[in-house]
Amino acid sequence: MNAAVILFGVFVVCLIIGVPVSVSLGTASLSAVLLGDLGASSTVIAQRIFGGLQSTSIMAIAFFVLAGNLMTKGGISRRIVKFANCLVGNVRGGMGLALVLACAFFAALSGSAPATVIAIGTMLYGDMVDLGYPGDRTAGLLVVSGGKGSNEDISEAACMYQYLTEKGVPADRILQEDRSTSTRENLRFSKELLAEQGCMPKEIALVTNEFHQLRASMIAKDCGWTVSSIPAHTQPWLIPTYWVREWLGILHHTLLGTE
Question: What is the pTM of this model?
């Protein structure tokens, strides 16, 4: 069988059943090597793979992650913030400027944007509030949206609220929307709830399951938002059913514009 067909087919199947992308790539490549007609010996293929791994860029990725973890745990983050504050802290709004500068330093050293947000952002939120910065502008609002099903004890919004507060998210940063019964209502009612709080963002970060990101983003754009998506994990055995449902929903949205 053609190696390209095997490579693409195995990769797609792995993604559909929820296998991580890195593992999917490895599985697809190995399947193509073992089952495909490549016209090369296994020794040559092994040598090419080993040669591809001899890259300083690949080594740098792992060491950047290690450096970020060491900086976070070793207190270097706080020292970077103090240094940035010495540079720009004497001007009006200096702590906010120091936050941006410290994030730039940390990101350049660690090579990881999520690590920067966690290491610097969570540390300085309390400091900025203590210095008098308004809490509603220092960090974003979270809206948890979802009604209560017929077989559920509490609403989806209440469940997410409990989870977030247990993980340390301040309760006053979370708004609950518990009337919705569909994705479109999730977004429409959430927008109304934000408007009641005097908050009319043009850009939002949408947290939902991997399989639901595309359709939810399409509906959010219909509501007038610019969207960034943050995926939530789904159990692998649920993926096939949800993928079928989502593609039918996307087709319905594309043709009719409604759910």
Answer: 0.51
